[in-house]
Design brief:
This protein has about 250 residues and is α+β, with helices and mostly antiparallel strands. The protein folds into two domains: about 100 residues, Probable inorganic polyphosphate/atp-NAD kinase, domain 1 (Rossmann fold), CATH 3.40.50; about 130 residues, Sandwich (Tumour Suppressor Smad4). It has five helices and 17 strands. The strands form three sheets. The chain has a six-stranded antiparallel beta sheet, with no helix packed on it. Strands 12-11-10-7-14-15 form a six-stranded antiparallel beta sheet, with no helix packed on it. It has a five-stranded mixed beta sheet with strand order 1-2-3-17-4, sandwiched between helices. The chain is elongated.
Amino acid sequence: MRKLRFVASDTPVAQQAQAGLIARYGQSPVAEADVIVALGGDGLMLTTLHQNTGLPVYGMNRGTIGFLMNDYAEDDLPDRIAEAELTVTNPLAMVAGAADGHEHRALAINEVSLLRAGPQAAKLRISVNGRVRMEELVCDGALLCTPAGSTAYNYSAHGPILPMGSDVLALTAIAAFRPRRWRGAILPKSGTVRFDVLEPDKRPVMADADSRGVDSVHWVEIRSEPAIEHRILFDPGHGLEERLTREQFV
């Protein structure tokens, strides 16, 4: 039987589930584990993936939506994990230049977003692979997302859902004011996207990579990081590709 490591969110229902599963299946040290079992919601799944790069993570929903999680059940867990489908996704690597001159680096499994941090709309210049593609986007913000993250914030901002394995990223505006009808862009996964913040003192902007924020950014560069692989396990017939497809018909 595979060696399992259980992690859980702080909620009582997740903690109770963890205690029951450890009593039934044991608890292996992280260094010896074959699979991490995450009990909670999508936030816990993202945290677990960031902290355990390379180890497959099998999530069971003890949170709210649980888009990245499987249904919860105590029975037959080793068999479910053995039969699970593997999805591999690469994170986005963000470098953000802040007003104090420091550069901040972070990885994002879902998306990197830029958000206005004051009462006035942000003004952003967008470049792709060193070439300016939009001189000025006036907006509440903008984001770049992976296929795995395309149903999250991106979808709420009316961005497209991207199929897994499509080797593209979605660039989506958040409440664009000028150009008002700009619908964003679908870009090659191999590209590098740069946002330059125009009028940063008057129109401050923050950057966020999977809830890790950087205040008062002047520029942000984002690219996919193929050297890092995050491995997610799903029950047969309920993999991420199926979930992304299903989400478009609800």
